[in-house]
Amino acid sequence: MFQLINITLHKHPIIGYTSLNFNNENANPFNGVKTTVVIGPNGIGKSYLLKTIVDVLRMVDALVNRREDVKIPELGYRFGITYMLDGVQYSVTNIHQGMEPIGRNVPRQYLFKRNGLNVHVEDIRLPQSVIASSMTIADKFPTPSIGIYEYRGVRSEKTPSMTGTRTLVRKAVIGIIDSLAHKHTTRDELRLLLESLGFQPRMHIKYKVRYKENFLTLGLTPEGLEELYVNWKEHFKGRSGEVWGTKFYKSIRNNSEKINIVCRFLNRCAQLQGQFGSYSIIYDVLDWNNTLVEDAEAIKLLTNLDILTFPEIKVYKQYVNDGYEMIESSSGETQQLCQFISIMSAIEPNSLVLIDEPENSSHPNWQMSYIDWLQQIFHNYSDCHFVIATHSHFLLTDMNPEWSKIVALQKEDNRLIDIADDVNTYCWSTDDILYRVFHVRTTRNRAFESDAINFYKLITDGKKNSQEAKMLYSRLSKFVLPGDDPLLKLIKMGE
After folding, report:
1. How confident is the model at residue 426 (pLDDT cuts 50, 70, 90)?
2. In the predicted structure, residue 223 carries a pLDDT above the cut 90
3. CA angle (232, 234, 236) in 5-degree steps
4. Domain chopping of the chain, boundaries
5. Mean pLDDT: which of 96-110, 177-191, 322-336 is highest?
6. Which fold is adopted by the domain 2-128+348-428?
7. Fewer CB within 10 Å: C terminus or N terminus of the chain?
8. pLDDT tier at 102, thresholds 50, 70, 90
9. Which pTM does this prediction carry?
10. Could you please report the per-residue DSSP string of 23-34?
11. What is the CA radius of gyration of the chain?
């Protein structure tokens, strides 16, 4: 079971100084998926906080596992991170005075602890995966995925400037295929997701073959495939440049196993085309008998060879027989489907999942349901910890204190602090959350009126100096009121 406990930062270029606790000590880890929601005003550093958690854990992963395949830049700030894994507390820090790490071949500034005792770097365990998910094109998460880190955002890892709905759908298809191949729970999770979003529990993935006159010829051989790519000018009339997949073909041309996979798949397609007149490769994702998993390797190869078209995902609205492409769904539907699918494809037991602004393009009703969907869809992953950064007060309406915690950020000088004070918003109205948690300055909500009435009663009862009166005065005095508002007289009475 994984749980992020604390992160401490000194001289962070964006955040400055902070020490934040993500752990609800009173939570029952078996009653739901551990969820921490981080809130705060624009520009305070919520997204950078999630990015920093990723950066720190990637650095620790590089130290623990001696990763040299991707250069991870040195962090230009001091940090300390503490987490629990299977009942053992681990901490890694470069914030220490006069202490030497005892790890082997590790930079001197790092100190490793296991249950409070100094240990070698080899004694440090890490979460199974650290997943970063965002549907925002300007997300702060690093790329590429490496080691325990999995980027599941909208940007292309190969070409980060490439974003858009087609990129989302392509990633969703890859995610579905990978997840079906490795997890027996995927179909159940997909079914729950579709039904939660108002779709039928049906989903089809459709491919078409490009250049059918070239590739859908019965009896295609490795030699025939070689001829098509080497002498492409003779076979692909009208093209001014090489077939897009030529470079990839050259990288696998000597791999007989992969070449044979491609030829067998295309010959099967040609045979079906001969029987039915036309051919589209359609997979019923929720059907246990489909060949999607078996064809996964062929699909990847043919996609890179530019033989398969952009994949279509067909979904079906409830009470509607005809389906439609997911790319034609609303932006909110597409983003929610893609985000949950992307997390499904990457999540493993003992994972940390970081989600930035999941409310984007979603109706308030969906925002209010988001945490519940997360709990239902990922109920098999109660050993994981979800940390969510949001601007939406609607997400907080379903935060059960038995498995959740709220972190409310506020900047004081150059220090980022948590002012949530273990608040419990479970079953609160959105008005209450706006007023008591987000400190939205409106005099029109019920919570404000209730505070004003209670404050008046305390003043008239001679309890001006009581702890409750001081708390109410502190809250009410934050509001900017017109000069003729009678509430100003009431607030002045509490001074």
Report:
1. low
2. yes
3. 60
4. 2-128+348-428, 178-326, 446-493
5. 177-191
6. Rossmann fold (3.40.50)
7. C
8. very low
9. 0.79
10. --TT--TTSS-E
11. 27
Structure tokens at 376: 């239902």
Percent of the chain with pLDDT over 70: 84
**Rounded CA separation 174/341 (Å):** 10
DSSP reduced 3-state for 339: helix
Where does the pLDDT of residue 99 fall: very low under 50, low under 70, confident under 90, or very high at 90 and above? Answer: very low
pLDDT digits (tens, 9 = 90+) for 7-39: 999 989 999 999 999 988 776 666 788 999 998
Q: Which residue has the tokens 């295929």?
A: 177
Cβ contacts of 97 within 8 Å, gap of 6 or more: none
Beta strand 78-85 with 88-93 is: antiparallel
Q: What's the rounded mean pLDDT across residues 77-97? A: 89
Q: For helices 467-476 and 446-460, what crossing angle results, to 10°?
A: 140
The DSSP annotation for 149-207 comes to EEEEESS-SSSTT--SHHHHHHHHHHHHHHHHHH-TTHHHHHHHHHHHTTEEEEEEEEE
pLDDT at site 218: 80
Query: What six digits make up the tokens of 80?
Result: 């300390």
CA dihedral over 426, 428, 430, 433, signed as positive or negative = negative
**What distance in Å separates the CA atoms of residue 137 and residue 19, rounded to the nearest whole number?**
29
* Among 406, 411, 367, residue whose Cα is nearest residue 387: 406
Pairing between β-strand 324-325 and β-strand 2-12 as defined by DSSP bridges: unpaired
Half-sphere CA count of 179, side-chain side, radius 13 A = 23
